[in-house]
What does this fold into?
Amino acid sequence: MDQASKFETLTTRQAVGLSYKTTGDTILPLNTIQVLDELTNRNAVVSTGFVQYEIWAAQFYRYNRPSQHLTNGGLGAMSFGLPAAIGVALLGLMSFFVDIDGDESFTMNVQELQFGWRIFPFRQRY
It folds into this structure.
């Protein structure tokens, strides 16, 4: 892709954003992330689980500053999100943090729930 095409793509994304189709009353994870973005005023630290959650959070949550998106970087560490969010909470760096993750990550980290954290588990299929 040449420089002009890259610039056009970035300009279009900034102006229009990414989109997706909704069907009926179904609440898609992508819509949930956009609502989360609005509710937190783009100020939350967002940790994510495995691959698709990293991508969704990168595409549909609009970050205000560096280091707001905590991810395993594609290294295949499943269930990374919840412990990362808890780490942010314990450090006291941010007033609001959230983990965007799947139902299996929730199952793998259920012992962490004794502390009462805010969690948004997504069903793997929709």
The helical segments are 3-16, 29-39, 51-60, 81-91, 103-108.
